[in-house]
Amino acid sequence: MDKGQVNEQLKSLIGDVMPDLEEVRLDVDMKQEYGVNSVSLIRLIVACEEGFDVEFTDYELDLDSYDTFGDLAAAILEKLEKKDA
Fold it and tell me: Are 67 and 29 in contact (CB under 8 A)?
């Protein structure tokens, strides 16, 4: 799975978990722009674990670990690459 595919699937998952967000951009601060809080981020990460078949550690569930949805996409891509290696 390449970066573009990860980004598209992540956008789809964001739409499922946070349906009130319209036209999500991956490169803007998700806390300021979209009001994402720790609860909504954890819900999104759980959806990502299922959707991408990856696992996040407890440490990686911290809202401060991700400024943008793009940061989360990069973490997912890294996990997928390690899994395929």
Answer: yes
Instruction: Give the separation between CA 39 and CA 51, rounded to whole angstroms.
Output: 18
pTM of structure:
0.93
- Going by C-alpha positions, the residue among 39, 17, 14, 37 that lies closest to residue 25 is 14
pLDDT at 74: 97
CB distance 10 to 80 below 8 Å? no
pLDDT at 22: 86
Residues sharing a CB contact under 8 Å with residue 43, sequence separation 6 or more, in sequence order: 17
State the amino acid at position 13 in one-letter form. Answer: L
